[in-house]
Amino acid sequence: MSPIRVGFVGLSKNGWATTILAPTLVKNDKYRLIAVSTTSKDSAEASAAQQKQNTGHEIAPYFGSTSQIANDPNVDFVAVAVKSPSHRDALIPVIEAGKNFFIEWPAGKNLKETREFAAAAHAKGLKTIVGLQGRHTVVIKKVKELIDSGAIGKVLSTSIIALSPRELRYWGPEVAEKNLFTALADQGSSMIEVAIGHHLDTFTHVLGDFASVSATTAVLYPTANVINADGTTVKTIDNVDSDHIAFTGLLKSGAIASVTWRSGYASKGRQQLVWEIDGEKGAIRLTDDQIPSAYVHIRDPKLYLNGELVEVHGGGLATNIAAGWEEFTKGNEGKHATIDDAVRIRGLIEAIGLSGQEGRRVNL
């Protein structure tokens, strides 16, 4: 079978797409990177030259509107890896061109945009993949295997305490200048949308969907210092999105869930993650104090079954992303997150936010 010919949007000389997403894709011989698209002519040409070195063949450079790369007749599939405020402008031309696509989480600035992407993709009959790679981690696969096999019996309850630590400088009293968009209103990159969103996809992949949620949210760090690369404070901003989020919920299975996420605390002396899953016959615990173990899509926490350590050897973030690319090549049999999963998780996030704002249980 011929390789999937890929056009990559947002593949600049540096950054997430260049260091993680593209390298894991081009190592898979079922894909062939043939074009890149960035915001400017210079950056597009620099990216194409860099990828030519990486792949050993010519790469077409595009810049400006993504309609150009999307309408390249040689491109079968377009990967979009730009910041969430630009997702819509980048992705809609791809969908209109009828190209299968990858979109990085959180797949738009809000649920409205995500639903728009899904509806348009379905209208075109497109195959989609979303950057929610937590379900591909070796530890999570093992947890799902244990639960599905009946190792702990019927799941009755689960609880999570998770930390997005100060050292990462995303949400809380310090924000890295390069991450500033994550601290601004209506950009689609708040803690609940990014960190918790990733975790919710992993959670529901293992334990199933929520039937209802009841949340308490708060901004306990009302201001943040914006820190540049040399550690100097550039300015101080008001924090507008919740940095502490706690919610309980009833799963469709009947199990009870209790989840607490907090950000801004320094890591020393704190557990990054404690996730317990209690069944009728036993218990699973995921825990670790290494940064950033609460981000299970990035780092594998330790796994315990009935108090005994289960030796599981994972490959880390790159391996998880590579597994997602591989699953997409399997067509309808692929077990990867799709735009419909993004709508589902976005809907859950909106319900948690609404519950926190109105102080009531929200049914899903």
Integer count of domains: 2
Catalogue the unreliable spans. Answer: none
CATH topology of the largest domain: Dihydrodipicolinate Reductase, domain 2
Percentage of residues in helical conformation: 25-40%
The counted number of beta strands is 18
The CATH class of the largest domain:
Alpha Beta
Largest sheet: 9 strands, mixed
Report mean pLDDT, rounded to a whole number: 95
Determine the structural class based on helices, strands and strand pairing.
Answer: alpha/beta
- The end-to-end distance, rounded to whole angstroms, is 42 Å
Instruction: Give the topology string: H per helix, E per strand.
Output: EHEHEHEHEHEHEEHEEEEEEEEEHHE
CATH architecture of the largest domain: 2-Layer Sandwich
Strand order across the largest sheet: 17-16-15-14-7-13-12-9-18
Give me the number of helical elements: 9
Shape field: globular
Any idea what the radius of gyration is? 21 Å
Q: State the fourth-level CATH superfamily of the largest domain.
A: Dihydrodipicolinate Reductase, domain 2
State which percent range the strand residues make up.
25-35%
Pfam family, one: Gal80p_C-like
InterPro entries: Gal80p-like_C, Gfo/Idh/MocA-like_OxRdtase_N, Gfo/Idh/MocA_oxidrdct_glycsds, NAD(P)-bd_dom_sf
Domain Gfo/Idh/MocA-like oxidoreductase N-terminal: 4-131
Protein name: Gfo/Idh/MocA-like oxidoreductase N-terminal domain-containing protein
